[in-house]
Specification:
This protein has 461 residues and is α/β, with parallel strands linked by helices. It folds into three domains: 173 residues, 3-Layer(aba) Sandwich (Rossmann fold), CATH 3.40.50; 67 residues, no CATH class; 206 residues, Rossmann fold, CATH 3.40.50. It contains 19 helices and 15 strands.
Length: 461
């Protein structure tokens, strides 16, 4: 009996794999599908409840002990020291070095000292081995082992390669010789983040570009075990379940059809500190012009940080993503937000009916390019001018590809932003070829059929 386990960790994974076509293809190829969920079991009822051969097992949330955390942190910091020649990783490494003299801070400083001296790939593999060894007697790890003994999946597919709280689940799977594979979750996860949660038997990547990065940053990975599949996060844009209606969009957001639409998409509050500055600059430009601004906040935020803007600029149209918090007692509570069908349609409407997107170096640049819309990246802050230094993201490897492609324009101040808005709205097709070339570089396959490619790749394992 062919049985596959799908590990879904958070709301974004839910969106990518539950709200795409993935499960409709998957159930035709396996006798039984078991979802190992980091989300509450009941969230699957609406989308997957009708499938008889899907079982959902809610994983008990694992919390690290001090010794678990020590080796995991040592592994991650050592990985960053090994690859510190890359700006994004160096930036993460430096910003992670703590200040103060509390007991935990001192331990982190010790970890940095060890990793600075011993950070070869062999050292990192050793730290991971020690980390996995610390899980063996943990009651939650034992519960994971019992779950896998009961289910006996032939293969485990992790839909995200980074969450550290899934490391014990991976460790148990490896101990039981269950084959594992993982999807590289985002375009920036290899060249600017720390170590994965562990080593897998196979890897699914977006593109050849990502495959090359994986082989560089993880030299023990065997090339033939990497499959280029694209990414399901964009597949809803070509699915019949999510069809935007222009009239409904106009009515819902009170759109003035005589005006062009600029959509500003916010980053989350941790890195989108200059969002308000950028929005004010846009409002300075569109004053007395036939242009309206629609702001989409981050799904990870509740939008409360913009309350002063809401009062000051009543003409701004706001789209707060309809992601429901399904659990709040979690080590990463933001991960427990899941999207609604309504929100995917809202987003697709923004992509289709807006005339221009402005954002701070986010994946949303790709979303809008898929609808052939011009994109401006606003980065007003540097180390000298007093704003949060968002210009540093321009040096991250994954975003240098975007800059070099000429598919977007970069606005470092208000003068540049206003000139680029003028250019984008007056000549929207100016960078159309560059946009297409960047999409081809970043996404290794057409959107339609992405889920089918992933399922076919799973079958090869």
């Amino acid at each position: 009996m062919k049985k596959i386990g799908i590990v879904i960790t958070d709301g974004v994974g839910y969106r990518n794999f539950v709200m795409s076509s993935f499960f409709s293809y998957l159930i035709t190829q396996y006798n039984q599908v078991v979802i190992y969920s980091g989300l509450p079991k009941n969230v699957y009822e609406k989308n997957l409840g009708s499938y008889k051969n899907i079982i959902i097992n809610e994983l008990i949330v694992f919390e690290e002990s001090k010794i678990n955390w020590f080796y995991r942190k040592l592994k991650e910091v050592a990985h960053m020291y090994l690859h510190r020649d890359f700006y994004g990783i160096q930036d993460t490494l430096e910003r992670g070095y703590p200040k103060g003299n509390t007991k935990r801070v001192l331990i982190v400083k010790v970890i940095y000292a060890i990793a600075k001296l011993f950070h070869s790939e062999k050292n990192i593999q050793y730290y991971e081995k020690r980390q996995f060894h610390t899980f063996r007697k943990n009651p939650i790890t034992i519960s994971y082992a019992n779950l896998l003994d009961e289910d006996k999946p032939n293969l485990l597919f992790f839909t995200h390669q980074r969450p550290p709280y899934l490391a014990p689940f991976l460790a148990i799977a490896k101990k039981k010789n269950i084959k594992t594979t993982s999807f590289i979750f985002s375009w920036d996860n290899l060249a600017s983040k720390g170590r994965m949660l562990g080593s897998f038997d196979g890897y699914f990547v977006w593109s050849k570009l990502m495959k090359d990065e994986l082989l560089y940053f993880y030299p023990t990975v065997i090339e033939k075990n990497i499959k280029i599949v694209g990414t399901p996060q964009f597949e809803p844009y070509v699915m019949d379940e999510y069809v935007p209606n222009r009239n409904q969009f106009i009515k819902k957001f009170n759109i003035d059809i005589t005006k062009k639409i600029i959509c500003y998409s916010c980053a989350d509050s941790s890195i989108g500190i200059n969002d308000e500055v950028h929005i004010r600059s846009i409002m300075n430009y569109i004053k007395d012009k036939k242009i309206q601004l629609l702001v989409r906040t981050s799904p990870a935020d509740n939008g409360s940080r913009f309350k002063e803007l809401v009062k000051e600029f009543t003409e701004i149209i706001w789209n707060h993503p309809k992601w429901k918090l399904c659990r709040d007692n979690h080590v990463e509570s933001w991960s427990q937000r899941i999207p609604t069908k309504e929100d995917i349609i809202d987003l697709k409407s923004l992509l289709k009916f807006s005339d221009l997107n402005i954002n701070m170096c986010s994946t949303m640049s790709l979303d809008f390019m898929l609808f052939d819309k011009p994109v401006i990246n606003t980065v007003f802050g540097n180390e000298e001018n007093g704003f949060y230094n968002d210009q540093r993201f321009l040096n991250y490897l994954h975003y240098k590809y975007v800059i070099d492609s000429k598919a977007v324009t970069i606005a470092r101040d208000e003068v540049e932003l206003h000139a680029q808005i003028e250019e984008s709205l007056s000549t929207p097709n100016l960078r159309a070829l560059y946009r297409k070339e960047l999409i081809d570089l970043e996404i290794g396959g057409v959107l339609k059929g992405t889920s089918k490619r992933i399922v076919e790749a799973l079958k090869t394992l």
